[in-house]
Amino acid sequence: MFETTDYKGAKEKDYPIVIKQLDALLQDEPDTIANLSNASALLNQFLNDVNWVGFYIWKEDELVLGPFQGLPACVRIKSGKGVCGTAVSEQKTQLVADVHQFPGHIACDAASQSEIVVPIIKNGEVFGVLDIDSPNKNRFDEIDQKYLEQFVETLEKYI
């Protein structure tokens, strides 16, 4: 497992490796659900101090739970609701140091303290979001955001 929380230099070195692993892992697989499943498993293995890693897929005007690693989760989220719905409505990454300070946060897992949500945009349309929760406040920073956005860009080629 990569050590991503020790210092910024480790993240700068390790994230590109996991993105290359994602690209190699998905390269010959056309099935979207299989690719999202492997992507969530890869991130769950790679990241320290997380308690939920997964995807919500945009269907019929709401986010619907997709492949994930973690405890059972909320199944449907409307645009603009919670961190995931806000990422969709604003079409930009939401980096939340303390979920209890986020207006309208949806508490699917009471242990979650911080969260990062990256929207997935395919051909100019919202496909869904990558959602990662941590039991620690301030778990995610701008380096995580930069590389998780690159992770999603790589994933978009395979969905």
Automatic annotation (TrEMBL):
Start and end residues of each GAF domain: 52-155
Sample GO molecular function, one term: L-methionine-(R)-S-oxide reductase activity
GO cellular component: cytosol
InterPro entries: FRMsr_CS, GAF, GAF-like_dom_sf, Phosphatase_reg/MetRdx
Matching PANTHER family: FREE METHIONINE-R-SULFOXIDE REDUCTASE (PTHR21021:SF15), GAF/PUTATIVE CYTOSKELETAL PROTEIN (PTHR21021)
Similarity annotation: Belongs to the free Met sulfoxide reductase family.
Name of the protein described by the UniProt record: GAF domain-containing protein
Origin species: Gracilibacillus kekensis
